[in-house]
Design goal:
Layout lengths: L1 H16 L4 H21 L5 H13 L51 H4 L14 H12 L1 H28 L54 E6 L3 E2 L13 E2 L9 H17 L4 E6 L12 H11 L12 E4 L5 H16 L5 E7 L3 H11 L7 E6 L6 H17 L8 H7 L9 H4 L4 H4 L1 H5 L7 H7 L6
Parallel strand pairs: 1-4, 1-6, 4-5, 6-7
Antiparallel strand pairs: 2-3
Helix pairs in contact: 1-2, 1-6, 3-5, 5-6, 10-11
Length: 470
């Protein structure tokens, strides 16, 4: 029986993992366990089920009357002795018509079902009512009834195991709370593996639920605003307290200057402090796996780990609402992908968006990226941080070139911006947001549709794009 229980539990796990319906689960489970049960029964002299039924029957079946001391006579004894022409022994008569008169009473009829389970123990059968007695006799002596009883018993046990397995395995699993990309990272709200209900009753046009009226995987619907810290490098060390050292980062050639590491830490600090001033804001560190030498570490996760190592710069309240966006490859994707990531966390799009970046990128974000995504100026803000002062001139000159490219190609779909994105995606990770944010699908698919000759110019497609915050 223990083996059957383990087998049933394993089979239920397998069936439930494939999202099979309850009816199919029960049918497959019943057939499979029945085959195993029959095979095991062949190895024993008496099947377990028959022993169980016989034991119940021996306790429940008893002769209809308590005249158990009488002697049963053969049914052929008869004749003309006595009145009525039958045998009279111990006041018993026979009604055998061939014997010529009265005969044995009904108490002497050899009832196979009752006599073979005769017992002197107290019976739990009803004391009267022949219909109830016949029902009990049928239930505990007929072969088909025993099979039906086994099937019912098995289904009850199977349903119990199904409930137990689903409850323990599929509902009590915990997410990795230490992973910065997890929606449950370091947060004590919610609970592992549970579905969250989007209870935000905000009816403005910035609220767009995936499945209105149903439970969704939106664990933080109470937040309305978004703070984005744009990533610039991937951490290379294991001690995040040494983030202020240049050799702790995978830096590009143009970044290899004294003071770059401190500038990155300062930018992280400003992002945390900006989010701390707005209790309704979610903080996102945005940046993908842009360095081949960095392996599977992203810019976003690097910034998140540095923040935790620095104890969130004294703003511990931000920890529970700080997350990562790990697919962006340039500044435009930092903004667009973070808008979608905010939707994944809250089930809506931000009422206000704040970007934290280098001062010399202010015009790029305010005049190009925000306008390309049709974000109203009253709902967008940029917080600048100082760059390395000794190389400010080089940074400004490079920014002028990049800004001119985005002026011609707002979404970065054409070379050289598209080629730069390929270089910053050495593991061909791509981005999953097109399927996750249906209201942004038009904007997220512009570059993919631009590759089609029938799609028309990129500018015309961008003009036709409809976004949920318009």
């Amino acid at each position: 029986m223990c083996f059957l229980c383990v087998f049933a539990a394993f089979l239920l796990l397998l069936l439930h993992s494939f999202c099979v319906s309850v009816v199919v689960e029960m049918c497959v489970l019943c057939a499979s366990v029945r085959v195993v049960f029959v095979c095991l029964s062949k190895l024993h002299s008496k099947p377990t089920s028959h022993v169980f039924i016989a034991r119940i029957s021996s306790l429940s079946i008893k002769r209809r009357s308590r005249r158990s001391q009488t002697t049963m006579l053969p049914t052929h004894i008869g004749g003309g002795s006595g009145q009525g022409g039958g045998v009279n022994a111990n006041n018993f008569t026979t009604n055998d018509p061939e014997s010529g008169g009265g005969g044995l009473s009904h108490s002497f009829i050899d009832d196979n079902d009752e006599n073979k389970y005769r017992t002197k123990e107290k019976s739990f059968l009803p004391p009267g009512g022949t219909h109830m007695r016949q029902l009990f006799l049928f239930l505990f002596t007929q072969k088909k009834a025993r099979v039906a009883f086994e099937v019912v018993r098995f289904f009850v046990v199977a349903l119990f195991f199904r409930w137990l397995v689903v409850k323990v395995v599929f509902e009590d699993g915990n997410e990795d709370e230490d992973h910065p990309g997890s929606v449950l990272s370091t947060s004590k709200t919610g609970g592992g593996g549970k579905r969250y209900s989007n209870n935000n009753k905000n009816t403005n046009k910035y609220h767009h639920s995936l499945l209105d009226g149903e439970d969704n995987m939106f664990p933080f619907p109470e937040y309305d605003n978004l703070v984005i810290v744009t990533g610039h490098s991937v951490y290379s060390g294991s001690d995040y307290m040494r983030a202020g050292e240049e050799n702790s980062w995978f830096l590009e050639e143009y970044q290899m200057h004294a003071g770059t590491a401190n500038a990155l830490v300062e930018q992280i600090k400003v992002g945390v402090e900006t989010a701390a001033r707005d209790g309704k804001a979610i903080l996102l560190f945005s940046g993908g796996k842009t360095r081949k030498l960095g392996g599977q570490v992203s810019e976003g996760s690097s910034y998140w780990q540095v923040s935790r190592a620095y104890n969130w710069f004294g703003e511990m309240s931000v920890e529970k609402r700080a997350f990562t966006e790990e697919y962006a490859r340039d500044s435009f994707e930092n903004l667009m992908f973070s808008m979608c990531r905010f939707y994944e966390l809250t089930g809506k799009y931000p009422m206000k968006t704040t970007v934290v970046g280098y001062d010399f990128k202010r015009e790029r974000f305010e005049e190009l990226h925000a306008k390309a995504l049709k974000i109203p100026s009253v709902r967008f803000a940029f917080v600048g941080t100082p760059e390395v002062m000794s190389f400010k001139k080089q940074f400004v000159e490079g920014e002028v070139k990049v800004r001119s490219l985005f002026e011609k190609d707002a979404y970065g779909c054409e070379a050289p911006l598209s080629e730069k994105r390929k270089l910053r995606d050495p593991f061909a990770v791509g981005a999953p947001y097109e399927a996750r944010c249906p209201e942004m699908q038009g904007a997220l698919s512009v570059c993919k549709r631009a590759k089609s000759k029938k799609a028309g110019s990129v500018k015309s497609m961008i003009q036709r794009v409809s976004l949920p915050w318009e």
